[in-house]
């Protein structure tokens, strides 16, 4: 019998903006996947490009939500994490993986914390260390280049990049633990921009590049991660 897949999306809600749960929920639902949510915080806006945003930390709700879900014997075909606001949330989410995965669950960690060479203003400098550990527990990770170099403790370089550089990053990221890596913000010239993929088991590297659209769009990583997960849960492979 065909059974609808169920994902637990663990991200913040930014009330204004097009990111985190406000995009994960509609995109995953539209892809035919049931999307349960664990909101990690409620912000008036996302943090990029705004000052004065409100931040209601929901860390204290995560364990009670998980405890109630355990009484319902819930498990998830996928657990998808994005913006996590503190080391404590990283720990709670790692435990959530252990409590709610089954042997076929796909754990996708988007290590949301930085872009354009800089850590988002809400994070301490040592946060990438903690996020790196969480990535070690994932099946698929979706860092951008800034997040990748912060976790690998390498210097940030502006593009255009070379294939050698990108493939070296992909392999080092896979060494952190995940089976598959999807690196975003990859470009080799000023016309095309997209993602590079690496499957540790097969060793296959792939590229998905499209025409660059000028400008900076907050939340594109979350739109991409949600669409990627929807595709994976519908049987589309990352690497061909
Ligand atoms: O899109 C990533 C994201 C998610 N959530 C919050 C953010 C950002 C990026 O700035 O600030 C709160």
Describe the structure.
This protein is of the alpha/beta class. The chain has one domain (6-233): Ribokinase (UDP-N-acetylmuramoyl-L-alanine:D-glutamate ligase, 3-Layer(aba) Sandwich). Helix content is 33%, strand content 29%. It is built from seven helices and eleven strands. It has helices spanning 21-30, 59-71, 87-100, 127-135, 145-152, 163-174, 220-233, and strands at residues 6-16, 34-45, 55-57, 76-81, 101-109, 114-115, 118-119, 140-141, 180-186, 192-199, 205-211. The strands form two sheets. The protein has a nine-stranded mixed sheet, with helices on both faces. A two-stranded antiparallel sheet has the order 6-7. Helix 2 (59-71) runs parallel beside helix 3 (87-100). The longest helix is centred in the middle third of the chain and has 14 residues, at 87-100. The radius of gyration is 17 Å and the shape is globular. The two termini are 28 Å apart. The model has no long low-confidence stretch (mean pLDDT 96). The structure holds 3-hydroxy-5-(hydroxymethyl)-2-methylisonicotinaldehyde (PXL). 3-hydroxy-5-(hydroxymethyl)-2-methylisonicotinaldehyde is lined by residues 12, 14, 19-20, 43, 46-48, 83, 112, 120, 218-219, 221-222.
